[in-house]
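Continuing from yesterday's entry. The apo prediction looked reasonable, so today I'm repeating it with zinc ion included to see how the binding region is handled. Same sequence as before; SMILES copied from the compound registry.
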Amino acid sequence: MTRGRVGLRIDGDEGSPWARNLLLDVGRALARRKRGLNVPDDHAWLQIECRRGEVEVATMAAIADDAMHVLTKALEIEVSQVRPCRVIVDEGPSSVVDRVIRISSQPRAGYRRDDWLELLFSHELTHLLVRDAWGVGPVLWWEGLAVHLGDDRIRTRLFGHSYHAYCRALDHLGGLLPLEPLLRASTFYRRRADLRVDLQAGSFCGFLLETLGPQCLRAFLTDYRRPTRAEPGVRLDPITKQHLGDDFVGLCEGWVRFLRALPCEPVLVDRLRTRTLGLECDRSEHCDFCFAPRSSDRECPCPDDATGRT
Ligand SMILES: [Zn+2]
Ligand SMILES: [Zn+2]
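Holo prediction written out below.
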């Protein structure tokens, strides 16, 4: 596995003293994050633009380098196959569209900014890596893998409870949502204000990744044919059986059995017992085909082969 490499493209002049100083800053930022110096030589994959003055390009490059290393390893994707992408740190919502990742520089309350940037970037980079190397699956996989390797991974490190542990506690309380409705992008995003949607999608995909390994998921997503306007239903079988070893119902049951073998954490049971779940306001509509937000009731204008986003 090739180590992730940060490549910075700076105004088309990478040999300038200013650019060299910036690379030294990247090295210092990496060292601060207790990682080895890893400046680019053969594979430049990233162009970073920080539009908010308070985030240094060097810091963002170090975070990106770290995330690239961890994610390509977890997904068994060869770094040298990753095509260059652009990262814009700005205000506003995070997204990946084509080869541009946008992340918000404003941390949510309770997060240090570096952790927050790492979480958002890991989430969006997972989308990009999976989309380019494997393909876009049903939204439960599209968001679930990104939530598992982004949000869940960082939050478990910071706060000590994995999304599996949260779902174990939800199961104890009889509060797990059925996963089947979350196969449709419009339903998934409309209900996403309910924290269980992300917790369960992340835990379910984490379960598949941990028990089957990335190559089974790759084969499944590569073979998956996305719904079209002519055939709008999400069709999983027979490829779930073929690549993941069971039909969707069986996979959901396997996930719950996996959760029940984990210890139940009383602190999470108490925390979730006092939350009122399922009463959140619906969010805006998203397109079932390209997953993008829709601004009106009109049909989304995307072609049937539109790439996934958000
Ligand atoms: Zn669309
Ligand atoms: Zn996402």
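Comparison notes:
- Residues 1-16, 34-43 have pLDDT under 50 and may be disordered.
- The longest strand covers residues 85-90.
Will overlay with the apo model tomorrow.
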